[in-house]
Amino acid sequence: MSSEKTRLEEAIQQLLAQLDELREAIRVVQARSLALSSEIQEIRMAYETLSNIQKLAHREVLASLDRNGYVFTKAQLLVTDEAIVRIGKEYYAALPIDKAKSILTDYEKDLTEELRETESELRKLTELYNQVQKRIQEYATSLQRLEEGLKSSR
């Protein structure tokens, strides 16, 4: 009987370690999901801003000096028919606004697909986490019954 108890205790310890690993993996994937969602929002805002510049052809704008909009300054746009857009990891190009918007649309599609894959991975990890939790509970219940059986046989 005590070898059964030892086996159950070892199995529970292994599953608890696996649970910790899964918890960390879930945290990492959740962080990636939030980062992708934020990046998609940034791209959408850039697209909308380009559309407004194109539509209104205003030369005077308010430019944010930070990502959160704590400080703005008035600025004059020298060119309203082009934008400088990232075309690679560290490469930028001055392109017509329609082309810049097209590139942003492509980026958004790619990131949205990556977000879908990330969310799918998160669902799988969460499902596995729940399965491991259930198995731990089953083993703990078996261990408790075994210990009760040992006490009553004494």
UniProtKB/TrEMBL annotation:
InterPro entries: PFD_alpha_archaea (IPR011599), Prefoldin (IPR009053), Prefoldin_subunit_alpha (IPR004127). The keyword Coiled coil applies. Residues 5-32, 97-149 form a coiled coil. The lineage of its organism: Archaea, Thermoproteota, Thermoprotei, Desulfurococcales, Desulfurococcaceae. One of its GO terms (biological process) is protein folding. The gene is pfdA. GO terms for cellular component: cytoplasm; prefoldin complex. It is found in: Cytoplasm. Its main location: cytoplasm. This is Prefoldin subunit alpha. It comes from Ignisphaera aggregans. Heterohexamer of two alpha and four beta subunits. Belongs to the prefoldin subunit alpha family. Belongs to the prefoldin alpha subunit family. Keywords: Chaperone, Coiled coil, Cytoplasm. It comes from the Archaea. Molecular chaperone capable of stabilizing a range of proteins. Seems to fulfill an ATP-independent, HSP70-like function in archaeal de novo protein folding. GO terms for molecular function: unfolded protein binding.
